[in-house]
């Protein structure tokens, strides 16, 4: 059985945080943040708003924006997140309950900023195997709850938001071949640990906040993503010209520009959510999709390459038809 994305929607908290906000408590400024990252603002969830809340609101938006769509026969929920409300129960189980979806498998995916694409790949596999027919894939984060606001190299980056895609059977495949991979030797270059204080045998600080070795991740991202985009195109017998849009995880506009230069793609093919939402990890790809959809850019039949990368370090890429 082939599959396709039949709907996509997002939710972002209303609380807008401009770059000037950070000038109050760390040594930074608007110009540095914009020039080094491309971020102008981001959204933070309220004190009593958590990742599961953002997911439920994104799902409600999907229903509101797609009349005739129902979650009655959804038979699996996948939630990609690194900022779950708690370790157990899963976000997926809470969403199942709050959306009142019965007879539904539930699973959270921990693949950091690559999680949403991993989710799409898993959903395609479930439908292909015939075990499931209607899968909700969320990418959602309340990263502000896990941000170290004393660390100026990372706190200016992160934002909160949620995206959700509905994946259903299709007569013709609209979710094509994928690439996935990982280099766990870089584990301590991007981590969030609440308990263990060792990664790969090396001591780490485990204070429940995000730690990032920005320079190392930046270099790894440009090199790895450039190679994997080319590999993904080859795996699908496509060229850059066959793609309408490329959505890389929005970690830093300079990474997007670096990869575009490396693969020879024009910047107007690159979609992102970095400018107004910052780095929202697993939510960044659906947020970028939604911005482009609202701007009238993404049209039915468009071919879109999506590639997420981050903590692991891991990556996942897939080409889809809108
Ligand atoms: O989402 C998962 C994947 N994540 C990524 O892909 C993130 C990858 N990394 C990055 O995006 C970038 O490395 C950062 C945005 C995190 C940092 O940018 P950078 O251009 O690599 O900066 P840097 O770490 O090389 O720092 C340059 C200078 C340093 O000062 P000195 O040592 O040159 O005097 C920093 O101390 O900028 C300083 N700096 C800041 N200055 C003002 C670092 N953070 C700030 C800040 N405001 N917020």
UniProtKB/TrEMBL annotation:
Reactions performed catalytically: malonyl-[ACP] + acetyl-CoA + H(+) = 3-oxobutanoyl-[ACP] + CO2 + CoA
Region (ACP-binding) residue spans: 250-254
Residue ranges of every copy of the Beta-ketoacyl-[acyl-carrier-protein] synthase III C-terminal domain listed in the record: 233-321
Location in or out of the cell: Cytoplasm
InterPro entries: ACP_syn_III_C (IPR013747), ACP_syn_III_N (IPR013751), FabH (IPR004655), Thiolase-like (IPR016039)
One Gene Ontology term, aspect cellular component: cytoplasm
EC numbers, comma separated: 2.3.1.180
Pathway per the UniProt entry: Lipid metabolism; fatty acid biosynthesis
One GO molecular-function entry: beta-ketoacyl-acyl-carrier-protein synthase III activity
Alphabetical UniProt keywords: Acyltransferase, Cytoplasm, Fatty acid biosynthesis, Fatty acid metabolism, Lipid biosynthesis, Lipid metabolism, Multifunctional enzyme, Transferase
Residue numbers annotated as active site: 113, 249, 279
GO biological process: fatty acid biosynthetic process; secondary metabolite biosynthetic process
Positions of the Beta-ketoacyl-[acyl-carrier-protein] synthase III N-terminal domain: 107-184
Keyword match Manganese: no
Signal peptide: none
Main localization of the protein described in the UniProt heading: cytoplasm
Enzyme class: transferase
Complexes and interactors: Homodimer.
Function of the molecule: Catalyzes the condensation reaction of fatty acid synthesis by the addition to an acyl acceptor of two carbons from malonyl-ACP. Catalyzes the first condensation reaction which initiates fatty acid synthesis and may therefore play a role in governing the total rate of fatty acid production. Possesses both acetoacetyl-ACP synthase and acetyl transacylase activities. Its substrate specificity determines the biosynthesis of branched-chain and/or straight-chain of fatty acids.
Comment block on domains: The last Arg residue of the ACP-binding site is essential for the weak association between ACP/AcpP and FabH.
The family this protein is said to belong to: Belongs to the thiolase-like superfamily. FabH family.
Identification of the protein by name: Beta-ketoacyl-[acyl-carrier-protein] synthase III
């Amino acid at each position: 059985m082939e599959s396709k994305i039949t709907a996509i929607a997002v939710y972002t908290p209303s609380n807008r945080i401009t770059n000037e906000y950070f000038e109050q408590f760390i040594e930074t400024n608007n110009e540095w943040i914009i020039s080094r990252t491309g971020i102008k603002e981001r959204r933070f969830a309220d004190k009593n708003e958590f990742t599961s809340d953002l997911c439920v609101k994104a799902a409600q938006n999907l229903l509101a924006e797609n009349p005739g769509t129902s979650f009655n026969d959804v038979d699996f929920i996948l939630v990609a997140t690194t900022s779950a409300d708690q370790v157990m129960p899963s976000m997926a189980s809470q969403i199942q309950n709050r959306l009142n979806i019965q007879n539904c498998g539930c699973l959270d995916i921990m693949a950091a900023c690559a999680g949403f694409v991993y989710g799409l790949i898993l959903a395609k596999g479930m439908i292909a195997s015939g075990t499931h027919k209607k899968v909700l894939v969320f990418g959602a984060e309340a990263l502000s709850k896990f941000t170290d606001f004393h660390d100026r190299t990372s706190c200016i980056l992160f934002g909160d938001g949620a995206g959700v895609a509905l994946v259903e059977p299709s007569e013709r495949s609209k979710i094509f071949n994928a690439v996935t991979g990982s280099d766990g030797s870089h584990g301590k270059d991007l981590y969030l640990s609440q308990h263990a204080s060792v990664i790969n045998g090396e001591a780490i600080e485990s204070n429940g906040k995000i730690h990032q070795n920005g320079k190392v991740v930046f270099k790894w991202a440009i090199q790895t993503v450039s190679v994997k985009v080319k590999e993904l195109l080859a795996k699908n017998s496509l060229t850059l010209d066959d793609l309408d849009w490329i959505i890389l995880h929005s970690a830093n506009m300079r990474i997007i520009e670096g990869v575009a230069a490396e693969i020879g793609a024009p910047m107007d093919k690159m979609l992102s959510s970095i400018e107004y939402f910052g780095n929202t990890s697993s939510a960044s790809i659906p947020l970028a999709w939604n911005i482009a959809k609202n701007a009238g850019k993404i049209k039915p039949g468009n071919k879109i390459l999506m590639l997420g990368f981050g903590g692991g370090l891991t990556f996942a890429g897939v080409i889809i038809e809108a």
